[in-house]
Write a structure and sequence with these properties.
The complex is a heterodimer. Chain A is mainly alpha-helical. In chain A, 70% of the residues lie in helices and 5% in strands. Chain A has one domain. In chain A, α3 crosses α13, α5 runs antiparallel to α11 and α9 packs across α11. The radius of gyration of chain A is 21 Å and the shape is globular. Chain B has one domain: Orthogonal Bundle (ABC transporter involved in vitamin B12 uptake, BtuC). Chain B has eleven helices and two strands; from the N terminus they run ααααββααααααα. A two-stranded antiparallel ribbon of chain B has the order 1-2. In chain B, a hairpin with a 2-residue loop joins β1 and β2. The longest helix of chain B has 32 residues. The chains are: A mainly alpha, B mainly alpha. The interface between A and B is large, with 49 and 48 residues.
């Protein structure tokens, strides 16, 4: 566990610096738009990683929570005229209650039965969103009001003056998404280092052993399930306001699979790894559009090959390689095996 | 009233038999390797689509079916050799992502070869339907049931009467001990993937005249097969068949009497309810976790 420390102390400032400098390298609004979307999704994935990476509990239905947050914001602000923040909080509360209620029976399940149950829960929610057109607009989707904070409207199409500077709405949105990502990482790291995080790592190692030493495993599993669901819901709300238009696709099984793939691809239980996973998985379709018809096939192939050759995920595999390259400091004979 | 019920029952049993075959494929692979193969549904698509293509080229039906099944078998072996075997030490979730990658790859390939549109396959018999007690029964349904029945029977005989079948069972119980007894476990795993692919392809071919076929039918059919396998209890052959039929009938009844919009939700609602009360499915073995 001591190995974790040097990696994460400078991590947050480095991430902040990268996010701060990134706009200088982004040529146009299109790139800025992709960066904003990636930041919002990456924050969702950081939350999912708490459950999957640290807690060792698979969720194949997390997009449902993201979708519920998105639709709660869209419906409450659009149909009922609420302002953004109360709508977001109400959505998060709804998701928390649902995750808590469903999580209790679901998290008793193990292995493939847990995958099956989370998958089933996700698909049912997606089907409801798809079918209840009177509320959600159905398969055609739903337009979403711009984000309003303290009476001010933040739209990507407007320009704002900030401290005497002329800033585009798109740039402000990028800043907001970057801040949200930093906040998500900061909360996640504190959770991981708290008693909750230690209990979860024990559950991941061996649930039975954790229970034997007195960890209330079902309590911690439920807690982290609810926390990661709320992460998804809040980011879903922001995502809905940002894109201005949502379809049931945000809650679909395919989206759930994308989210969990980001976690596994980037590296489970590595907060910066899963951010890398989100970046790559969202950039890949952009890079593959040149292949047109072959896009889907290439995507599947790259996914398969990466996981076969780097089963621990990108960042852990890379940092392992870097550690091997570095000359090893002299160790006592007793600690030869890491 | 009764005719209506019978009608729903016919269509439920037909699609249920298909789910049962997919679930048996899941069960086979799960027993041999403890991998949940999310690419299982793609074999239905490959079976159906390549049969349609071969028929269009003028190949007679029995030969077209044999060729399509052989193609699926080869792909099943390739999936094991190229994707699963190199990663056998990986986490369960990593293996899941690998099979999902494989299914996206196969779907992408199918989209290039066959396009995105639906393809129709003619019914196997010249007479399309017969009248049974006021309900219409499609002759293709009889084909589906007969073929599924024969396959289940053959599989049962294979596992109880042949050395190879017993070797698969032995590997599923304890791979280490099986290897010490001289069973080539890697070959057994390959065989399990091949059989699962064959079962999937047969199901896909049989049901294609009823439901049409397209490059992306594998997702839902695969997931429903997974649900059927989990309803029965992962790893139980009887459970897979019962789970498949139960799911098919429940779906048809919901579509008929409640709402066809929520037909697809039935499978997932059913599995949640069953798992809440019986965390190991209907026929799942009670195993203690080794610490």
């Amino acid at each position: 566990m001591a190995l974790r420390l040097p990696e994460r102390v400078p991590g947050l400032p480095v991430l902040a610096l990268v996010l701060l400098l990134l706009p200088l390298f982004l040529g146009n609004e299109f790139h800025l738009d992709i960066a904003t979307q990636i930041a919002l999704i990456a924050a969702t994935v950081v939350g999912l990683n708490l459950l999957v990476g640290y807690g060792g509990q698979v969720s194949l239905g997390h997009a449902a929570f993201f979708g519920m947050g998105a639709y709660a914001s869209a419906i409450l602000t659009g149909t009922y005229g609420w302002t953004s923040i109360p709508a977001l909080l109400c959505g998060a509360l709804l998701v928390a209650v649902l995750a808590w209620t469903l999580g209790r029976p679901i998290l008793r399940l193990k292995g493939h039965y847990l995958s099956m149950a989370t998958l089933g829960m996700g698909i049912i929610i997606a089907i409801v969103i798809n079918n209840e057109g009177w509320l959600t607009g159905g398969p055609d989707g739903l337009a979403v009001e711009p984000l309003t904070v303290l009476g001010a409207e933040l739209s990507i199409f407007d320009h704002y003056s900030l401290l005497g500077l002329e800033v585009s709405g798109a740039m402000l949105w990028y800043g907001l998404a970057a801040l949200l990502l930093l906040l998500a990482v900061w909360i996640a790291q504190n959770l991981v280092d708290s008693p909750i995080g230690r209990a979860l790592r024990a559950v991941h190692g061996s649930e039975v052993a954790a229970r034997v030493v007195g960890v209330d495993t079902s309590h911690y599993k439920l807690l982290i399930f609810v926390i990661s669901a709320v992460y998804a819901s809040v980011m879903g709300s922001f995502y809905a306001h940002y894109t201005g238009f949502i379809t049931p696709q945000v809650a679909s099984f395919e989206h759930s699979i994308e989210l969990i793939t980001m976690v596994v691809l980037g590296g489970m239980a590595s907060t910066y790894g899963v951010i890398l996973g989100a970046v790559l998985l969202m950039l890949l379709p952009q890079l593959l559009t040149d292949f047109q018809d072959y896009e889907m096939m290439m995507f599947g192939l790259i996914l398969m090959l990466t996981m076969i050759f780097m089963p621990k995920g990108l960042l852990p595999t890379l940092s392992e390689a870097v550690r091997r390259l570095r000359p090893r400091p002299a160790t006592t004979p007793a600690s030869g095996q890491e | 009233m009764f005719a209506e019920f019978l009608q729903y029952l016919f269509s439920g049993v037909t699609i249920g038999a298909t789910y049962a075959l997919v679930a048996l494929g899941f069960t086979l692979v799960y027993n041999a390797s403890h991998v949940i193969n999310f690419a299982q549904g793609e074999f239905l698509m490959i079976g159906g689509m390549s049969t349609v293509s071969l028929l269009a080229m003028g190949v007679p039906l029995p030969l077209a079916i044999a060729m399509a099944v052989a193609l699926a078998a080869v792909l099943g072996v390739a999936l094991h050799k190229l994707a699963i075997a190199p990663a056998r030490k990986a986490d369960v979730i990593t293996l899941i992502i690998i099979t999902i990658g494989a299914s996206i790859f196969l779907r992408g390939l199918a989209q290039i070869i066959w396009g995105k549109e639906f393809h129709a396959m003619p019914s196997f018999s010249a007479t399309e339907s017969v009248n049974v007690l006021g309900a219409v029964m499609y002759t293709q349904s009889l084909w589906v049931l007969a073929v599924a029945g024969v396959l289940v029977l053959l599989l049962a005989l294979f596992f109880t009467r042949t050395l190879m079948g017993k070797a698969i069972l032995a590997t599923s119980m304890n791979p280490g001990a099986a290897r010490l007894m001289g069973i080539r476990t890697q070959f057994v795993l390959m065989l399990a993937f091949m059989l699962a692919a064959v079962l999937g392809a047969m199901a896909g071919i049989m049901v294609a005249p009823v439901t049409l076929t397209a490059y992306d039918i594998g997702i839902m059919l695969g997931l429903k097969g997974f649900v059927a396998a989990a309803i029965g209890g992962m790893g139980s052959g009887v459970g897979a068949v019962v789970g498949g039929l139960l799911l098919g009938i429940a779906e048809a009844m919901t579509a008929g009497y409640i709402s066809s919009d929520y037909k697809d939700a039935v499978a997932f609602l059913l599995i949640l309810v069953i798992l809440f009360f019986m965390p190991r499915g209907l026929f799942g073995a009670r195993v203690a976790e080794r610490v």
